[in-house]
Amino acid sequence: MKLPPEYRLIRVVSPGPTTTVALARDAEGTTRIVKCAAIERAAGVVAHEATVLRALAQAGIAGVPRLVGEWVDVIAMEWIELATLGERADAMRADRAFRERGVRAAFERLDAVHGGGVVHGDVSPGNVFLVDDGARAEIADFGLARIFAGAERESLPMDGAFRGTLLYVAPEVARGEPFDARADDFAMAASLVHMATGIPLRAVETQGASTASVLVNAGSRPLDASHPWRARVPALFPRAMADTLFRCLAHDPRDRPREEERAW
Question: Are 188 and 110 in contact (CB under 8 A)?
């Protein structure tokens, strides 16, 4: 990967097919997260993420990466050492208090992002971060985000290919339809339920299936009412929280609760 001259690579964190994420030190020796376009057409995605981060900073939204440098196809962000939701899956399953705090904190941070005029577009266990006790969350990876309010608006160049995480994608996103913050709510609930139960909500649909067939199923069929995760949720969460998670996972976005209707 090609870093700015003043940065020195520590290690690659995520060698993705379109972008590469790494830890690097700047000229002052401060550790930063650096995201680089791995292919030429991904430069627009990296630049778009910088635009989104600037918009969130201007809106005063905390708990998201702080942009500290931008080049043609590279951005540098403040590094905060936290564990992802995926890395805290064992705690989500074993510790009820941690689990409940994690749900509240994750949705609180997501609501703040929405309040800053941004829809994330790819919420998953790998880009939601929790501190040790689960009481505070942060959200990263805004490469697929949409700015829907404020003075600065930008559309991410698309070539018709699906971009996102199949296990957690909201049905309307899978269908290629316009979407709003309710799609993030679906993906957040799907991520939290998966980590808490240990059961992926679309396990049967994704095994050995093509991306196209998974998207068709995700877009056309509600989540299986008889799937084992549904029986686990009421045992793992207080009734109001379980009911709210179920409502956030509604197939029709109109059936998902508004922020003020959610009971945590």
Answer: yes
- Verify whether residue 243 is a known catalytic residue: no
Total count of residues recorded for the chain: 264
Q: Alpha helices, DSSP H only, in 4-121?
A: 43-58, 89-94, 96-115
Q: Which residues pair with 75 in a beta bridge?
A: 35, 70
The domain 8-78: what is its CATH number?
3.30.200.20
Which two structure tokens, joined as six digits, stand for 103?
A: 């749900």
Please tell me whether the overall predicted TM-score, pTM, comes out greater than 0.90 for this model.
yes
Sorted by where each begins, the domain ranges of the chain are 8-78, 83-261
| Domain 83-261: CATH architecture, name and number where available | Orthogonal Bundle (1.10)
Closest CA to 222 of 252, 245, 187, 192: 252
Catalytic residue among 73, 111, 122, 180: 122
Rounded Cα distance between 137 and 109, Å, is 6
pLDDT tens for 22-78 read 999 999 999 999 999 998 888 998 999 999 999 999 999 999 999 999 999 999 999
81-110 pLDDT, tens digit per residue, is 889 999 999 999 999 999 999 999 999 999
Other CB atoms within 10 Å distance of the CB of residue 168: 26
If we measure between CA atoms, which residue out of 64, 60, 61, 74 comes closest to residue 24?
Answer: 74
